[in-house]
Fold:
Amino acid sequence: MPYRVVKEAEPQFKLLLVATIVSIVLWVISSYLPVVGLVVYPLQLFATFIHEGAHVLATLLTGNSVQSLTVSSDGSGAVWSQGTGSFSQLLISSAGYLGTTLYGALLLAWMRFGYPSRIALFFSAGFVFAMTVVFGLLAPVVNFFSTVTLGSVFFTVFAGLVLAVGLGLVAYFSNAKWANFALAFLAVQCLLNAIFSLTDLLLITTMTGGHSDAVNMAAATGIPAVVWVLIWFGISILMISVGLRIYSVSKIRKSETVFED
Structure:
């Protein structure tokens, strides 16, 4: 069935398009100009916090415990948890990539329904802050740093607090226009990061077989890791498609006539 951008969503659609173009240009240029990479770097860390935070939430929702959350300077991250059961492992391992995609799609839906972007920015800041303090700092201390090093905890706390404060300042001082752009930009980062990360994961899985969420899934279910990567790809693309349709399009009624020159 044909779709079109609804008139009242045209400004939002243009905003999303600009945010997407700027994001892709920055990601491409950052490979050649390290200075530009400094702009992209905090956004990569934000997406990593969302990814690892999704692992944390899935762990807690399945009745398991989190020993630590760490974010590394290279943009990677890890969550150490205690728990058993294939179903729990399925949810926890899948939560990272799918959770990041879902978060980006939810930000798009939030904007589409006209809710204040500042609230979503404050929520994002609060989420990063909570993950940093509770699971990046307190959990490792309670577990006597059994799963992490002091250096990794320091970087996680430092990066998390800087991101949380930065997002809070943007939410507080930005006018409505810039707050909308900032939120659209964050949504795009989550969506692009999920796709790029899954692409990297597919290469790692097929070429090196290194440790990853997909390997964890293979160990828990017996289904090859590459199959799980492809499943996550499919689900992520579906969520992105639904999010974009909610954000900017509506169905054309059958009774409408479309004239073309």
Remarks:
- Residues 3-249 form one domain.
- Residues 12 and 248 are 7 Å apart (CA to CA).
- The chain has one domain: 3-249.
